[in-house]
Structures are given as C-alpha cells and as structure tokens.
Amino acid sequence: MQSLYPEKDQYLIIPAKRYYDREFAEQEWQKVWTKTWNCAGLASDIPTAGDWFKYELGRESIIVVRQADASIKAFYNVCKHRGRSLVTADFGHANSFVCPFHSWTYNQDGSNRRVTDRDYFDERALCGELSLREIRCDQWSGFVFVNLDIEATPLEGFLDLLPTTLGAYPFDAMRIVKDVSIELPCNWKVAMEAFLEPYHAHITHTQILPVVDELYNQYDFFHNGHALVVTPVGLPSPRFKDQDSINPALAYLLLEAGIDPQTFEGSAQDVRAAIWSAKRGDKNTYGLDYSNYSGSQLTDDWNPSFFPNMTLNAHPEGTMVMRFLPHASDPTRCHYNVWVMLPKLREGIRPPGYMGVEDDVDISGKVRPARRYTSVEDPQLGEVLGQDITNLIHMQQGVMSNAMNEGVRLGEQEQRIQQLHAEIDRCIARQ
Ligand code: FES
Ligand SMILES: [Fe+2]
After folding, report:
1. Residue 126 alpha carbon to ligand 1 centre in Å
2. Which range marks the domain in which residue 65 is found?
3. Is the dihedral of CA 400, 401, 404, 408 positive or negative?
4. Within a 10 A sphere around the Cβ of 161, how many other Cβ atoms?
C-alpha cells in the first residue's frame, strides 16, 4: 500500500463532507464515474443476439446489447430525437429499439433505422449523428464493463493484477440465481466502505467469530484502486476465547465438507486443512472441480474490490457480487445491488448458508431471476448483510453532523478505505 500510495497518510482522517457534499459528488461524477471502467452486468444475461439489459449509472441510463456477431455493445439509453429512454425494463430482447414517443427506430447495433415522417424535418434538424451514442464496452470473465470515456485505456490494463489473482474462479461459468437491489439512505461510499473492512465484524457479526478470523487478514493492493482482502474461514477469531474446541459453527463447516465432527481428531486449528483435504479427496460434497484452487481458496473469503464500486466474495461454491451505485441526484442516497452466482453444484445440493439463498430459490441456473427491489426493512439478503444494512441506515445522519467536523478516522484494518479515497483524488486531479 505504502509503495503504491505514498500519499496514504493523508487519508488517516477523511473529511466527512465527501459523503454528502454536492460539489464533491459532482467531481466524482465528472472524474470518476464518467472516466472509469465499471461493471454494467453479466454477459450470461444476454446470451443471444438482440438480448439486452439496462444499466443505471448515476444520472445516465445505458443499454447493453448482444450483437449478431456475438460481441457486446453498449449505448446510452437515449433516443436521438428528443431524448426519451428507449427501454425501461431491466432486461429484454429486441430486434430493433423503437422509441415509444414518436417511433424513431434503431437497429441492434445502435444505427438509426428510421426517422418517422422524415419529410417533415428540415434536414438541418437532422444534422449530426442520428444513431445511438455508443459507449466503450469490454468483458472480463463474464462481467461486462463499460466506460463512458471514449478515450479510456483498455479494461485489461485497468484491472491490473486482479484477473491473474482471481484466475482460479470460473466466474464466467457461474450463473446468477439471486439479484437484489436496495436503495439505501447513505452515500455510495458509506455503503461500500462497510464491505472494504473486516474490522466491524467482531461487533456487528458476532455470530461468525467462532469460525472466521476477521483480524489477521491478508491485504493486497493493486494499481488503479483495486485490492484484495483474504479472510480465513474455518478458524476461530483471535478475539474468540476458545481456540481449540470444535465449536458448533466449526462442526457445521466440517459436516458440510463431509467430515464427521464427532470423530474428528484435530482441534479448531486443524479444521481448515481438514476441509482442504476433504474437498480435494473423495468427500467432495458440492461435486466441484477444486484442482485449480489454492488451500486458502477452498475455505477462505476472497474479497477483491474493483475500483470504483464492486466487490466479490469469491468461493468455489459460489460468489457474491456487490455493486454500490451513486444515486442520480442525491449524494446522501445510493443503490446497493447484490448478485449471487453459483457454479453447477451436485444435483440436490443447496449452496452454502452464507450465500443467503432461500430454500425456494431455483439454483438450476436455467432461470434468470428477476431483480428483486427490496427495502431496508426487509432486505432479503440473509443474516450477515442484514446486520450490515442496519449499520448503514444509521450512518448518514452521523457523517453529516457537526460532531464529525474533524473527519472520519481510519485504522490499519481500514486501509482499503484510504486507498478508495486516494484513488478518487487521483482521478479528480487528472486533467
Ligand atoms: S423522443 Fe424518441 S422518437 Fe421522439
Ligand atoms: Fe459486514
């Protein structure tokens, strides 16, 4: 971190204004959101030509469309006549896009097919480009990224070492089984930062301490604002008193891996290694190919953060994707979008409990679930994320209070938050 961000110590305290000031939000819009690659959706959501999904990024709306040649293009979701949105649903299929206002029509590749009653237009009113405005679009492992900056450097370089670091996980072969979106009453960074640090777990998620070491984590920092935190799972927290016994949470993990906790001879410290052997051996409960994964990846939470606004909780048995999206006009609100993606699991096996997938959810991967728009009262995201959301709804008033005029204080376990702000400032400083 120190070598990539020598300015890091300037971010030990962060002005609270950054979480509500409209001028700062406008700078973020001009220099971060409209200049940076960010994940618009999943390639698996648009398998055939003409399939599209809509992506709302702040004040802009974007359509991402599968092309006849299997490539993917992205356009502003804006009719070139007077600006009506062409699509309003989250997903769809179209041979062409017909504007519902005056029926101007666009082909799948964005080119203008029809200006209705063209003879009634003075040609001077039709000067310039009548096709949809295209946006830079690229993919990595099934994630579709867009960049509103036509001059942006390629996605591959932007992602730095993340693709290599995460190479073992076949995200592009995973299928989305759950898609939840919530409007939160806090700035997008307030929301995201709760998922950039494991520091809060010891008090917010006390139930995980018997089975998660949320203190001694591995932190890796990359160029362009990206990072990775690896949190050991299957090991009691150093804050948890009993470091030896197979507590009920560890017993559950062992069982899940096909090991009988009653006859297990090791201590709590041996659980992770036992699970690694079980998954690599004949007790492969989930029926997955684990051969590409390291030991740590077989148990631990691999939590990469993609600047500016996406995190993954990557596990071989499934991955949770989170995106934190700025509100179109209000810096004290944001949209929190969570996807659960699963590989093909052994017939009849449900995903691990921490994925928060309800029993009635179809996990076959054959049905693309509709996006659920839920609320902070009933987020439908499972126990752990529910606890996080309870913090988030009590943050914005505080960061806007006079009592925070000295700023927000950050410790070593919160280095990724320092990095996020340092990277935002680097973007803002760029011409
Ligand atoms: S605004 Fe689209 S056709 Fe008029
Ligand atoms: Fe949390």
Report:
1. 13
2. 38-158
3. negative
4. 13
Instruction: Identify residues whose C-beta is under 5 A from ligand 2, the ion.
Output: 388
Does any ligand 1 atom lie closer than 6 A to the CB of residue 106? no
Which residue of 88, 101, 106, 132 sits with most ligand 1 atoms within 8 Å of its CB, as the best mutation to test the pocket? Answer: 101
Say yes or no: CB of residue 82 within 6 Å of ligand 1: yes
**CA 106 to ligand 1 center in whole angstroms:** 11
pLDDT in tens, 24-56: 999 999 999 999 999 999 999 999 999 999 999
ipTM: 0.98
CATH number at residue 410: 3.90.380.10
Task: Verify that 138 and 246 share a domain, yes or no.
Answer: no
Query: Of the bound ligands, which one is closest to the alpha carbon of residue 103?
Result: 1
Three-state SS at 151: coil
Q: Could you give the CA distance from residue 246 to residue 250 in angstroms, rounded to a whole number?
A: 6
Give a yes or no: residue 27 inside a domain.
no
Query: What would the DSSP string read from start to end of 172-215?
Result: GG-EEEEEEEEEESS-HHHHHHTTT-STTHHHH-GGGTTTB--S
- Contact between 84 and 76 (Cβ < 8 Å): no
Contacts of 237 (CB under 8 A, 6+ apart): 201, 202, 208, 209, 210, 212, 213, 214, 215
| Residues 332-363 pLDDT 10s | 999 999 999 999 999 999 998 888 888 999 99
Residue range 395-419, pLDDT digits in tens: 999 999 999 999 999 999 999 999 9
**Which residue in 303, 52, 387, 357 sits closest to 176, CA to CA?**
357
The residue out of 138, 158, 178 marking a domain boundary is: 158
Q: Count structural domains, the chain.
A: 2
How many whole angstroms from its chain centre is CA 214?
20
Ramachandran assignment for 224, one of left (phi > 0), alpha (psi -120 to 50 degrees), beta (any other): left
Instruction: Tell me which of 158, 180, 203 is where a domain ends.
Output: 158
Closest residue (by CA) to atom 3 of ligand 1? 102
Ligand 2 mean position, distance from CA 393 (Å): 13
